[in-house]
User: What shape does this take?
Amino acid sequence: MNAIDYALKMEIDGKTFYEKQSKESVDPRVKQIFDMLAKDEQRHYDIINGFKKTFYNYKGTDTFKTTKNMFSDMLNKKQTFNVDVNVFEAYQQAIEMEKKSVELYSSEAVKSKNKDEKNVLLKLAEEEKKHQIILENLMDFIRKGDEWVESPEFSHLDEFDKFSKKDKY
Assistant: This one.
């Protein structure tokens, strides 16, 4: 399997995983996060699929701004997510999937001789890193509950700011 086909499979697997998590989520905010992540994975699939036609077109997303606002709003209101703590293993699996995506897109960007392809791959790697941060925040919110809300030093929200300054969407 070549890198493009592997990336396409990863994106479809990610989309399927996030759709499943959305369906199983009780908290509407968690559903919203997983729905946004599933849409991003479909968008990534579409972008990568364009590579087969040597079409290197990047499509932006608002997922990170939306989730950052959601986490910030919940912190300000001292709210937590309503989820079953047994989902940690699934969320950890999702984080690992995102890490693998970052590694794949980063390494393929290094190998690429095409400037446009390289730029798109680097943007996709950044987005997958942001997905990882979203999921880590979600796990922290769930795991630490009120303690986390009261102790913002546990928050990864500064990671959003670091990436948001680079965003051009």
Q: What stands out?
A: The longest helix spans residues 115-150.
